[in-house]
């Protein structure tokens, strides 16, 4: 089983479309930040159709003029928009000052994963991935039904995200104990 490593703690949230990945990440972000932890979120867009800037803004006009990177900074926020692909590892290094990095997607990346399961057929995903340490389920009878090779996974209900957040925090403490 893959264990969570030292800070920043990285957790991937993976699953099929419409299983609640973004909703879970938003809830975990609220729960973790409410305990004083800093959280960065990386979302993978497999279709490459997202737009971060909109017509009528200066930054949009700079990009339309040909800028390969546009940075907008204020006293409290920074936005960087680049016209290039960034390897996941590079972004993780860039975000290394955060306590937690939650990643939506990148199923094949080698980090600990929580798999979202909405229907019984979604359990097949658990068996195809490396690093699965937990299952977040919409099902009420999942523990009884699932007997796959990763039956040692921690199971949580999608409706109890505060329990998931507490479990993540407990992983921090387990890591701290291993360092002693």
TrEMBL record:
InterPro entries: MGD_biosynthesis_adapter, MobB_dom, P-loop_NTPase. Residues 10-137 form the Molybdopterin-guanine dinucleotide biosynthesis protein B (MobB) domain. It holds the Pfam family MobB. NCBIfam families: mobB. This is Molybdopterin-guanine dinucleotide biosynthesis protein B. It comes from Paenibacillus vandeheii. The gene is mobB.
């Amino acid at each position: 089983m893959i264990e969570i490593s030292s800070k920043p703690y990285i957790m991937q949230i993976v699953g099929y479309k419409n299983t609640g990945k973004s909703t879970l990440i938003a809830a975990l972000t609220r729960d973790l930040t409410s305990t004083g932890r800093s959280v960065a979120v990386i979302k993978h867009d497999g279709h490459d159709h997202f737009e971060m800037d909109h017509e009528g803004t200066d930054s949009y006009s700079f990009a339309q003029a040909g800028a390969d990177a546009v940075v907008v900074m204020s006293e409290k926020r920074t936005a960087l928009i680049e016209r290039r692909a960034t390897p996941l590892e590079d972004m993780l290094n860039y975000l290394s000052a955060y306590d937690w990095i939650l990643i939506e997607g990148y199923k094949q990346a080698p980090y600990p994963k929580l798999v979202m399961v909405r229907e019984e057929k979604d359990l097949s995903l658990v068996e195809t991935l490396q690093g699965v340490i937990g299952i977040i389920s919409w099902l009420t009878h999942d523990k009884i039904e699932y007997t796959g090779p990763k039956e040692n996974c921690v199971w949580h209900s999608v409706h109890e995200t505060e329990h998931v957040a507490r479990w993540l925090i407990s992983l921090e403490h387990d890591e701290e104990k291993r360092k002693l």
